[in-house]
Amino acid sequence: MIRNIVFDMGNVLIRFDPKHFMDQAGITETADREIMMKELFRSVEWAQMDLGVLTEETAEPGILARFPERLREQARFLLHHWSDERETIEGMEELARRLKDAGYGIYLLSNASVAQHRYWPRFSVSSLMDGTLISCDVKAVKPMPEIYRMFTDRFGLNPKECLFIDDAPINVAAAINCGWQGIVFHGSREELERKMKAMGIL
After folding, report:
1. In which domain, by residue range, is 52 found?
2. Of the residues 56, 81, 106, which one is the last residue of a structural domain?
3. pLDDT, tens digit (0-9, with 9 covering 90-100), for 13-57
């Protein structure tokens, strides 16, 4: 029986859209956007920030060194301010609130850097969480099995009673391998609700 609903954050509860972030920074040339995607958002340093090995400050020198001079200021701005303008995923806060009102435990399990502690409290959905575990704080990332075990140990939960919702199939598969149940979120709250109801939730 599912008693706990565990949400991923990016593109499940709040939007993570590098293209939007680049629009906000005024980066319009296709070639420049490709460089920004490759050397910032898909960089080794970005993964290391999620792992808690680097912070934005310690990642900056290595990231900026790969950019042409004309793009460095925009790259620096995005590194430190990409999270300033973010939106919630439509309907997801309402769903989380309804689940909480129905008696389910509501949790967050996300890969994110230390910046998460700055921007997450700005979203009202954060107040619904009964517990939060962020990858940078435990030096482990999804889909590593240990982060799922850390999560259930930290909050004293039975894996069989946890449902994990993530937009990345590999992360959901890893949760299932750890004894959880899981649903891949494809951006539609209505589809998610149908799948949850089929599992006896709500």
Report:
1. 18-81
2. 81
3. 999 999 999 998 999 999 999 999 999 999 999 999 999 999 999
Of 181, 172, 174, 191, nearest to 92 (Cα)?
A: 191
Q: Same domain, yes or no, for 101 and 117? A: yes
Contact 130, 106 (CB under 8 A): yes
When divided into structural domains, the chain yields a total of 2
Give the residue among 171, 166, 134 at the shortest CA–CA distance from 51: 134
Kindly state the tokens that stand for 133. Answer: 């575990």
Residues 56 and 154 in one domain: no
Strands (E), the chain: 4-7, 105-110, 131-134, 162-166, 181-184
Q: How far apart are the C-alpha atoms of 66 and 76, rounded to whole Å? A: 12
- Check whether residue 94 and residue 192 sit in a common domain: yes
pLDDT digit string, tens, across residues 45-70:
999 999 999 999 999 999 999 999 99
Is pLDDT of 185 > 90? yes
